[in-house]
Amino acid sequence: MSFNISPISTQLKSSLQDKINGKTKPLGALGRLEAIALQIGLIQNTASPSLKNPTILVFAADHGIAKEGKVNPYPQEVTAQMVYNLLEGGAAINSFCKQNDLALHIVDAGVNHSFKNVPGLIKAKIGFGTKNYTFEPAMTIEQCKKALEEGAKIVTQVHVNGCNVLGFGEMGIGNTSSAALLMSSFTEFNIKECVGAGTGLAKDGITRKVKILEAVLKTHQPSGPLETIATFGGFEIAMITGAILKAAELNILLIIDGFIVTAALLVAHAMEKNVLDYCIFSHTSGEQGHHKMLQFLEKEPLLNLGLRLGEGTGSALAFPIIKCATGFLEDMASFSDAKVSGL
After folding, report:
1. What digits encode the pLDDT tens for the residues 33-45?
2. What is the CATH T-level fold of the domain 13-50+327-338, as seen in this structure?
3. CATH T-level fold of 55-319
4. Residues contacting 313, CB < 8 A, separation 6+
5. Of 7, 175, 286, 322, which alpha carbon lies 20 to 30 A from 196's?
């Protein structure tokens, strides 16, 4: 697939900045809220930006390497079990979306389970989990392209339904290993700097995980971003990559979550550099590699709560801050409106 992602227009930058500066406050007193308001206004090309039908998309899939149980403390079956939990409203992201009036959609990108007539599940399965990249590429190029296309199609549909702000989440036992491999490939950080505890590995488990992933990197030498994600990625990561690219093409504001979603963004960024213009980074996760990813992208997150849950929880928690950034542009009086002497 090809995506046409333009840099955000700066046509209204001066008038937007004047509007921000004209509010009843000292210059710059709202700190990063002012930068967020400016960014959203430029993305939407308006001096009165708004957030419509905010939505979190959670993509779930399984990873072939997880069947061995050497890089993950939980069995692969947990992925499907957690999808049911998400659909039944029992996960953290369900709670956070409910509290912040966010729509939530769950996508089967490639779970190793047959969901039969499950209400509320978006069925986009590419396969029943990826292959084990210890021995062979995780997916074929054709499967990878299909995952990108499915992610783009899902975003197109929510956009048609009026959404202009999206967050992404993921669920997949073993996906921190894929994210670490992608991170090392695109940033050239040593794999030791990319690997963390995932869903709760102890120190000896992390050491074993590093050795396994070092061997994986020696086994494969993919060329280019598409081949790299096909070799090391998961169906959910590839689908998020396509979703990110399509959302940026449609001028949708993107709230980027933690380690896994940022790994997908690294792939998207390698394909289309302008995608970063449309991103706000919600938080720094408890995975040691995540803050290095953000350093590589030269981006500062809004929150640092030590989260390492995934599911899009960081994006949901950051949304009220982003909402306030657009809200003050309309709700806050200007110096002239309030008859207050300007500075």
Report:
1. 999 999 999 999 9
2. 1.10.1610
3. Rossmann fold (3.40.50)
4. 92, 93, 96, 169, 257, 307
5. 322
